[in-house]
Amino acid sequence: MAVENLWLFFNKLSIPVSSIGIEKTSMLNNKMLNAISMNKQGCPICGFADITVLDDFNCTTFEICECCGSESGAEFDLRSTPEHLAKIRLKWVKQDNCKWWGNKKLIPPNWNPKEQMELANIEIPQ
Ligand SMILES: [Zn+2]
Hints:
The protein is 44% helix and 0% strand. The protein is mostly helical. The protein has 2 domains: 1-37; 38-126, no CATH class. The longest helix has 35 residues, at 3-37. The relative contact order is 0.13. Residues 43, 45-46, 48, 65, 67-68, 70 line the site of zinc ion (ZN).
């Protein structure tokens, strides 16, 4: 291979390598967005507010949501994608018909699961 062709060869190679670099950066940003979208307080599945899902070190608490029965650290954690959360949510809404999972005494007065999700800025599965 002539020196000139060799240079062209490497030059061609450098284009895909740099585009991979950009992809990696945006993937990292998406992961960071996921992390930000999950709050320490409140269930990321059903929006029930009275549950602490992450501790001060952003570790899952293994608390179980009284409302939908999802467990922090078992069903979801900081690395869960919005798609994964939506899948669990869909099951709770469609299969379980938003059934209250835990102690019935803890059901808030005038409880409305759809309103609860709306308040928590959670997309309601259609
Ligand atoms: Zn829940």
